[in-house]
Amino acid sequence: SVVLDRLRKFNGDTHVDLTPGEYTQLTGRAGRRGIDLEGHGVVIWGPQVDPRQVAGLAATRTYPLLSSFRPSYNMAVNLVGQMGRAAARELLETSFAQFQADRSVVGLARQLHALEAAAARERDEATCERGDIAEYARLRAELSSAEAGAARLNRATARAEAEASLEALSVGDVIHVPSGRRAGRAVVLGTGASVSGEARPLVLTEDRWAGRISSTDFPTPAEVLGRLRVSKNFNHRSAQARRDLAASLRQLDIPAPRRRRRAASVDEERIFALREQLKAHPCHDCLDREEHVRSLQRASRIERELDALRHRVDARTDSLARTFDRVCDLLDELGYLDGDTRTERGDQLSRVWAETDLLTVQAVRVEVLDHLAPAELAAVVSALVYESRRDDQPVPVPPSGEVADALASLTRQWARLTEIEAGHGLPRTRPPDPGLAGGVLAWARGQPLGEALRAYAGDELSAGDFVRWCRQVIDLLEQLARAVESGPLATSARAAANLCRRGVVLA
Q1: Does the global pTM surpass 0.70?
Q2: What tens digit of pLDDT does each residue of 331-369 get?
Q3: Which of 373, 385, 345 is nearest to 361 (CA)?
Q4: Can you tell me the distance from the alpha carbon of 351 to that of 74, in angstroms, rounded to the nearest whole number?
Q5: Alpha-helix residue ranges (DSSP H) falling in 366-502
Q6: Dihedral angle over CA of 143, 148, 154, 155, nearest 10
Q7: How far apart are CA 203 and CA 89, in angstroms?
Q8: Residue 217 gets which letter from DSSP?
Q9: Residues 162, 179: contact at Cβ < 8 Å?
Q10: How far is residue 308's CA from residue 436's CA, in Å, rounded to a whole number?
Q11: Are 266 and 154 contacting, i.e. CB atoms less than 8 angstroms apart?
């Protein structure tokens, strides 16, 4: 029997539901072929387990075959070293992953042809015998844009002028409020500003309302029409005081506010010129001009959709080869490739088969791993291998001393590398994870398994998981020794692998 305690698994980035294929792989190990007539797959019940989901996983027998193949740095230097860049690119174009990418474009290609035909029909409908309808539509669009811009500018200018006029008011000034519920004459009782700094003078209107006004009440600047004496001790909260002052305001003999005429702006002169051009255009007198313009607008909208669809097609087709080109360009920049030639640095990279292959070799280049004792080297290399399974893991405190310094340098190298990757449009190398460094350091120094597990920085780690991670650390240490071939680092890497290869890790 095979017992599944949950129907979710970690895929390297997050926890996701099992697929039917993964469920079959796991439960297919129940029973021994040729010995047992049947095997049993057991899913432990829990509040999150839907029996229908389990039935669907067990009943599905058709699984899509999807390629997860992506060009890596190690693969790129090996392919270029063996066959050159052009031949390697051609090889990638014949891969199953590229076949799947090309096949997925078939439906998009049909959409492309349909949209191209629709755009051509709309272009035909937009043809005008009198002249160039596209030029006419461009003039209309330019005029519309200029009018909208002028309107925005006029509103902003009027608001600024109104704000400045309110800031200049003094107590006793009589003004005319042109709009709003308080339209009419008002006398200024006090000046002041809001929290945002906007001028909001306190006024009293002819109907005895006292309150603050703002620039939103003034489409044109406030104009002082006269003066009225206001006592320094005037209390606008007193009904009697408001009544007396409002009566004085109504008795004032002041002229009506003047109508202000704004001078024509440069934008308005341009708008006038565009209108004249539009009227003089041959298509302006066409009886079907509106239908022609609408057809042209529909054609333009379809062509924008076509551009977006072509971009999607380009992103899918030739994707592997283009990613390979970006990888090679980055390796050229860092000195691992020289055109079609693999450099000495590239030879080192070709011997490191790990998810963090380039970061590992970069660490060798800048001597991050030099001067480390074998046990300390094993601890630092574990950060290149280990990856915590939870996003909410506590940030580990690495062992102090040389290990902490080397881990800090490794993180700085990772940051520089990801900047270069972003510049080439490549996905970022995952960051070094120091969570296992304390446990590996304890194990490499000969401490028992229990002590090594207690030195682990994350949540509880099983002995089996620790053994698995240790074996991956040993594997990368041996790759490192082969990559540098000779010298103190190679000697230290082999010694570190031997220190880790003991007890349950060796079994």
Answers
A1: no
A2: 999 999 998 899 999 999 999 999 999 999 999 999 999
A3: 345
A4: 8
A5: 374-385, 402-423, 437-444, 449-454, 463-484, 488-500
A6: 170
A7: 79
A8: G
A9: no
A10: 46
A11: no
d(CA 40, CA 54): 14
Phi, psi of 468 (to 5 degrees): -60, -45
Asked if residues 188 and 203 have their Cβ atoms less than 8 Å apart, the reply is yes
Q: Which residue has the tokens 């041959």?
A: 282
Which of 359, 351, 377, 362 has the alpha carbon at shortest distance from 479? 351
Q: Is-contact 373 399, C-beta < 8 A?
A: no
The Cα-based distances of 139 to 133, 145, 282, 356 in angstroms read 10, 10, 12, 57
Residue 376 · residue 489 · CB < 8 Å: no
- Backbone φ and ψ for 302, nearest 5 degrees, come out as -65, -40
Which spans in 281-343 are helix H? 289-316, 319-334
Lowest-pLDDT choice from 130-139, 304-313, 356-365, 493-502: 304-313
Render pLDDT for 423-466 as a digit per residue (tens, 0 to 9). 998 989 999 999 899 999 999 999 999 888 888 755 567 888 89
Residue 156 tokens read as 């902003």
Distance CA 170, CA 422 (A): 60
| Region at 119 (left for phi over 0; alpha for psi -120 to 50; beta for the rest) | alpha
Name the strand (E) or helix (H) holding 226.
Answer: strand 224-227
Check whether 399 has a pLDDT greater than 70.
Answer: no
Output Rg (C-alpha) for the chain, integer angstroms. 39
**By three-state DSSP, how is residue 137 classified?**
helix
Rounded to the nearest 10°, the torsion over CA 9, 11, 17, 23 is -70
Contacts of 70 (CB under 8 A, 6+ apart): 97, 320, 323
Residue type, 460: E
The 3-state DSSP class for residue 264 equals coil
Own/partner pairs, 82-86, CB within 8 angstroms, 24+ separation: 84/340, 85/328, 85/337, 85/339, 85/340, 86/340
pLDDT, tens digit, 9 for 90 and up, residues 49-82? 788 888 888 777 666 666 777 789 999 999 999 9
188, 170 contact by CB (below 8 A) = yes
Residue 46 burial (CB < 10 Å; 0-12/13-18/19+)? exposed
Distance CA(305)–CA(112), nearest Å, equals: 9
